[in-house]
Amino acid sequence: MNQVIALSMLGMMGASSVAAAQTEATLQAAQEGIYSVSTPDLSVVLDLSPESDGARTATIIVLEDESPVFETQKPDLFSLFFGPIVQIVEMDGRNDVPEIYISSYSGGAHCCNEISVATKTPNGWRQLDFGSFDGDAEALFPRDLNGDGQAEIKTFDNSFLYTFASYAGSFAPIQILSLVDGEVADVTAKGDFEWEVRSGLENLGAIPDAGEPRNSWLATYAAYLLILGEDDPLDYAVGAHDASVDWGMIRCTVVEVDYSCPQGKTKNIGFEAALTEFLTQTGYLR
After folding, report:
1. Half-sphere CA count of 12, side-chain side, radius 13 A
2. Model-level pTM?
């Protein structure tokens, strides 16, 4: 029996002469079975079937003109909580049909919503991996942030987690991901999204008084200044950091043995060097 679990329409977001992209349908299995939803352009079938070991496999099939054009599976689902959420949403205006957004939960501490998007290309359908992200699944749903008719994914740069503080003490800048020329692209620094970046900076809140959270806050603050193209973006972070903590600053001076640094072979490179290294590796500092 086919059943539409959820069909939602997002309102207009942002001022533009182009209609904002809308999520045309959302599909999620409530129990084992076959579910489907159709729009004028596409149909999606979600088949949640039991496996012999008590787990389940979710099979997602996309049909265009009633013909299957794409299929993917999520096996070894031991809970419905781990089942995929599928959305039909416009994310790439270069083709003639919307995209298929797929989100599933991987499990684990503070982790992870695994995001991929299936899109139609001149050579057939492709599935693009957007990555794994911490946070609420619904917060990651694609939304048209700049009113250009194509939806983006707004998240936080998860590479900042654990870098200069524990998970609970970490801060991270926003990150906006989109489909550009058929590939996943970080578009956070595009001028269209400056108001999103400035809003993220404002919502960063007050700097913590001391400890690892202070240094993580400063790293995030520096990243925001780099995105916005501000002058001397690292100056404040370097001058205001807490030098009494060394999280993220310890380096091994020799080759590690079994993923461990030999005793007495570590050094503290300091916050400025560690921050510069990290922001360079992550592409904020060039």
Report:
1. 7
2. 0.86
Q: What is the pLDDT of residue 110?
A: 61
Check residue 92 and give its pLDDT: 93
Q: Which tokens belong to 188? A: 């956070």
SS3 82: helix
| CA atoms of 226 and 146, how far apart (whole Å) | 21
Tell me which residues of the chain have a pLDDT lower than 70. 1-21, 107-110
- CA-nearest of 74, 46, 63, 73 to 120 is 63
Predicted local confidence at residue 71, as pLDDT:
97
- Cα distances from 157 to residues 36, 161, 200, 284, in angstroms, run 33, 8, 12, 11
| Distance between CA atoms of residues 235 and 245, nearest Å | 19
Q: Count of CB atoms within 10 A of residue 46's CB? A: 25
Tell me how far apart the alpha carbons of residues 235 and 250 are, in angstroms, rounded to a whole number: 21
pLDDT of residue 4: 34
**Would you state the pLDDT for residue 6?**
33
Strand 250-252 and strand 183-186: the pairing is: unpaired
Residue 187 amino acid letter: V
Q: With beta carbons less than 8 A apart as the criterion, state whether 160 and 170 touch.
A: yes
CB 151 within 8 A of CB 90: yes
**Euclidean distance between CA atoms 100 and 70, whole angstroms:** 10
Task: Look up residue 241 and give its DSSP letter.
Answer: -
All residues at 6 or more sequence positions from 234 whose CB lies less than 8 Å from its CB, including other chains: 222, 272, 275, 276, 279, 285
